[in-house]
Structure prediction request, 223 residues.
Amino acid sequence: MKIRDIPPENRPRERLHRLGPDHLSDSELLAIILQQGTVGENAIDLSNRLIAQHSLDGLSTLSPKELQKIKGIGPAKASQITSIFALAKRCSLKAKEKTPVKTAQDVYEYAKEILGGKDREHILILYLDSKNRINKHETISMGTLNSSLIHPREVFKTAIKENTSAIIITHNHPSGDPSPSKDDREITKELRNAGELLEIQVIDHVIIGKDTYYSFKERNQLG
Prediction:
């Protein structure tokens, strides 16, 4: 069935205007974004299949190239899907940036938006303002699946430029296990010592795993 064959009052776009987005299913909202389906499959059916096969979270982690490997997804639809998830992520991050960072859980909730689903280690630095709000974040290193190289000057270069008094180090473990390695412990100690010399406080190092995290501060291992 084509969208135009559905009674007008039941079409996703009309339901959105009449009822608001909270009354639409995930598939209906995605169908509005995609606008059109494929041969033999309307936009709602296509959206149902995409979500059933990959889930919304799964779709949000796929690159445009990966999306185009899915039946019915060409460059245009891949761009639409990638763009809508990117905008949603930016809105979520902006909202979190307005709230002071008080706990490692706050760091985890922020960093997982950026690092979740990555297949290589990424080191992300959070630069805090005087009220402990995230003023800026920056990915300074991307490593292999199991390790990542890092140098203190790369960590503190932006902090000095931005006149930041405190930073938080975060990085992901693609394996899902956030337990720190020997290298993680050595890097944390090295960066904390460098921060003391520069009078820039390293508040925490939070390792992002799958649905969990490891905080050096919570474990009293910052030194």
In short: The radius of gyration is 21 Å. The chain has eight helices and five strands. The helical segments are 12-19, 26-34, 43-61, 64-67, 75-97, 104-115, 152-161, 182-198.
